[in-house]
Amino acid sequence: MKIEIAARQLESLGSPIRLKIYRALVRAGEEGLACGTLQTKVGLPASTLSHHLKVLRESGLISQERQATTLICRASYPAMNALVGYLVDECCMDAACGRQGKAA
């Protein structure tokens, strides 16, 4: 993952409201949530929710799909896994704990 993508995604999650929205979508699973249902869950006016969804969508963390008259929002699990992987893949690589058991 490029550092610019990770930074943009982390920035989009830096808002407590967007983090709340994102967690609701992650919890919803692959089926996602209709915008109306999501609006009720997070307690936001439609215009405010729309603004925050746009930021999350532009960062690649969520997708939206129209089903007839309903807009379904879904967490992008590949994007989430890539971001988490980016953060933990090299954990402790430069620390002594990464070299335990090796001859000094």
Automatic annotation (TrEMBL):
Phylogenetic classification of the source organism: Bacteria, Pseudomonadati, Pseudomonadota, Alphaproteobacteria, Rhodospirillales
Keywords linked to the UniProt accession: DNA-binding, Transcription, Transcription regulation
Regions annotated as coiled coil: none
Organism: Dongia sedimenti
Pfam families hit by this protein: HTH_20 (PF12840)
Database matches in InterPro entries: ArsR-like_HTH, HTH_ArsR_DNA-bd_dom, Metal_resp_trans_reg, WH-like_DNA-bd_sf, WH_DNA-bd_sf
Domain HTH arsR-type: 1-95
Protein name per the record: Metalloregulator ArsR/SmtB family transcription factor
CDD domains: HTH_ARSR (cd00090)
Highest rank taxon of the organism: Bacteria
